[in-house]
Structure formats: C-alpha cells, structure tokens
Amino acid sequence: MGNFIETSQEQFDVASAQRTLFKNVYAWMALALVVTGLTAYYVANSPTILGMIFGSGAALIGLCIAQFALVIGLSAAINKISFTAAGIMFVVYSILTGITLSSILLVYTSESVALTFFVTAGTFGAMALYGTVTNKDLSGMGSILFMALIGLIIASVANWFFHSSGLAMIISYAGVLIFVGLTAYDAQKIKNMLSVYGSEVNEASMKIALMGSLELYLDFINLFLHLIRILGSRRN
Tens digits of per-residue pLDDT, 39-51? Predict the structure, then answer.
C-alpha cells in the first residue's frame, strides 16, 4: 500500500512539474509575441524611428545581423548563462523582431494583418497540440524539414535577384507547409526534452523551456510571414 501511495505521489509530482514547464514554454512565447506586436505598432507609428531604420540600408542590415547574432548567441551560451540573462536576451530579440516587422504594418492593411494573425494562431495552435498529444514519432520529420528549410532559404535569396512573383508565391506556400510541420515537430521535441527532468523544476529545466518557447516563437513568426504574403491585402 505504501509503495502504491509513493508511486502515485511521484506520478503526481512529475505531472505537476511537466504542466508547470509547459505553461512556462507558452507563457514566454506569448510574452515575446506581445512584445513584438507592441514594438512593431510603436515603430510603425513613429516616422522618426522609421526613417532611422528603413532610411538607411546599413541600419537595416545591422538590425538583421543583431537578430541573427542574438539567436546564435543565446543557443550557444544557454548552459553558461543564468536563466535571467537568457530571458532578457529573448525579450531583446523579440523587440528587434518587432522593429523589423513594423514594415508589415505599413505595407498591408490592418484588417488583413489581423486576419492573418488569427489564421496563424489557429493553425499554430492546432499543430502544436497535435505534436504534443500524438503518439506518433515525428522525429523522422526533423531532417526532412531542415533540408526543406535550407532549400527555402536558398530560393528566397535567389528570388532577391530574379524578383519573380510566381516564385515568391511558391516560396510562400512552401514556407507555410514547412513551418506547419516544424510546429508539430518542435512541440513534440520540447515535450520529450522536458520529460527527461521528471518532477524537477529547476534552472536547467527552465532554460530548456525557454529555448523551447524561442523555437515555437520562431515557428509562429515565420508561419505568419509566409501567410501574410498569401492572405495580406496591400495598402493603396
């Protein structure tokens, strides 16, 4: 009887810890999306900041480099820095992303941006839920999706020179499919990584949850960017 009670308590502790970590994953992701959205709105309504960033090619390139460096730096240093420092880096990254995405509010109508956001949220939510609850092993998708993503990046860079509207649309649809798949894959991967910690909610497991939220945040942002090119209505 005693062993049964101990086992039940242990299972309860593990389940409770996993719920806490999962809540943290999506809480951090939601926070980052809110920060990105507010930053984009503020910058889009500030002619001075818009002129400083988009009026200079060097400033925009520097902004993109800073974003890339932050993601790489956070991923590489996650085991060496504190959870607080990692969280600050994530928030800074979401601010920089908001600055970059402010141009979308200038190019597309507010109605189409809102519609695309809700379509993205619904699609993302459904795929994240599927990846979390399915018993099917999605690990085999990882290498395929990664190769497809590399191909997507190469095609996007090539289209900078060709300026083909047809290729741009193909890239957008392919991007939607890739990031839909990555959302499910990453959600399952995060669940598996967090399960290793059992009932432990410590700095190490919190860092894993934070990195998981960053991966899902990137999936959401990229899914939105590809969908807005399909669903968005440009301003006159």
Answer: 999 999 999 888 8
